């Protein structure tokens, strides 16, 4: 993985020292909250419903065991013993006292971590495929490009005060696991005639005005991608609306200008950039960054593991877990393991300090020191030998991390909701847990197959409800929580926005309604291999809507 | 917060709430002028006294952050348009980890 150079280390150290002074002045009252707020936000510190929340950047979702152990230490010593992994592949601590935050940031800096650009109207953490570097279907490892974008965007003086926050996602696989089409900029790495380049999508996003991104350029050669991103950002910075925060995201600019005019402006800016101050990425610099992401030296192994097969035969629960939580690896005899942070009854995406320590140990012992955070709020061990899976599963299960539900109905993306969030209108976690209970039988869940439920506690859509196969959106109606149900969203290469199919439901009615929809799917699918979303798209929303609202 | 804070009439019973600056914990102003992390101990104010309490709270930057009026009943129960949100602040329904 990438290691800080002297410049990275100095930048982070100076920022920590600067913020320490700012915190001291806030605690003394020398700075008012109005003065301090923009400063704390630049360091990932929010003031939430019950306490300060510190959001820490995990660049493209990659962690070393040493870093994960440090996060566990912070959870134990400065929080309440847990942390929350987010859809931006970051982590949030919900109970850190302001007076302790400079110390926490110092501890993070020691392991090459920080909270810079995890908030505010700047370019946020670039996200990518959580199987990057291991997936069979990628054309290159996208992490090197994420790192190049990170270096370009960190403290970029021109883009420190954008009209609104800005999110970039990168995939290098045909099957999009990074939800690039619902990002401000989505980059799909492709290869054409031996040249690596980027298919560029702009103007996607969720929130109160969801959009699927427009294809702006089918192929920008890799040497020119930073110039192209500069052109995108400059047009946005110049013309993005600053008079109304609800219309300030780039998706609104693209929509209001129209795709053709927006593309014309970007291409014009790009041409000017190329003529006047072009930045062609030097091949040796690209190679230097790529070198940080060299794959581990995996000793060749048989594609079929006798130990694995024997363990599967002996333990049906383990066999089920292997059917759900493994992803094909590019090297025979290895696999990528999803460590589900969605056990029944626990807040989705949360991990305790002891769980973090365990995953760090497993990564060191069995996973070549590599841990990822997925945007679906799970952890990944991307390189595990098939032979080692029984031991890994045994350890995970003992720590409450053995749920066999990756991409299944209980593996929900869920925002913190009104239990934590100052913006939320309704709680997300309790309704998600109530739905989980209906599908608690592992055999039943396996029969249902892949089905994404995404839950948000307000229109800001941090729980990605627009792109869940089933989306649940919490609203506040005169002091009572109601939940609108959306059907038909998806975040992959066929990205689509779900549609609200009818009036909101009371919290207690949501689980039964979801159950009716799922049962309707099971009766209508052509075979068990037809996924929920495929049946829904084949039959249309209307028929499912009737099931949703049928008398209980 | 979820919406613009509602304007409350002078005669409406109200409490003053905010966040402790050092820790970020939700706090409520007691009748004796001290701050408490227990919503059940909040003071109920109306009219000019309420305004004076809020003005005083706004000057305590080192102690409390972003204080505001919260609607309550005369006996101190949470009331009004923000009942759901304020109830969650006062009485969370999650355990928030082992040390909660």
Characterization of the model:
The complex is a heterodimer of chains A (552) and B (100). Chain A has 18 helices and 21 strands. Chain A has 552 residues and is of the alpha+beta class. Chain A has four domains: 6-110, Sulfite Reductase Hemoprotein, domain 2 (Alpha-Beta Complex), CATH 3.90.480.20; 135-291, Sulfite Reductase Hemoprotein, domain 1 (2-Layer Sandwich); 306-398, Alpha-Beta Complex (Sulfite Reductase Hemoprotein, domain 2); 418-548, Sulfite Reductase Hemoprotein, domain 1 (2-Layer Sandwich). In chain A, strands 16, 17, 18, 19, 20 and 21 form a six-stranded mixed beta sheet that branches. Chain A has a five-stranded antiparallel beta sheet with strand order 1-2-5-4-13. A five-stranded antiparallel beta sheet of chain A has the order 3-14-15-12-11. The radius of gyration of chain A is 23 Å and the shape is globular. The mean pLDDT of chain A is 97. Chain B is built from two helices and four strands. The two termini of chain B are 23 Å apart. Chains A and B meet through helix 1 of A and helix 2 of B.
Structural class of chain B: alpha+beta
Given helix and strand content, the structural type of chain A is alpha+beta
The CATH architecture of the largest domain in chain A: 2-Layer Sandwich
Strand order of the largest sheet of chain B: 3-2-1-4
Kindly state the percentage of residues in helix of chain A: 25-40%
The sequence of SSEs of chain B as H and E is: EEEHEH
- Total of helices of chain A: 18
Q: With helices defined by DSSP (H or I, 4 residues minimum), what is the helix count of chain B? A: 2
State the CATH topology of the largest domain in chain A: Sulfite Reductase Hemoprotein, domain 1
What is the distance, rounded to the nearest whole angstrom, between the alpha carbons of the first and last residues of chain B?
23 Å
How many structural domains does the protein architecture of chain A include? 4
Average pLDDT confidence of chain A is 97
- Strand content bin of chain B: 15-25%
Radius of gyration of chain A: 23 Å
Largest sheet of chain B, in brief, is: 4 strands, antiparallel
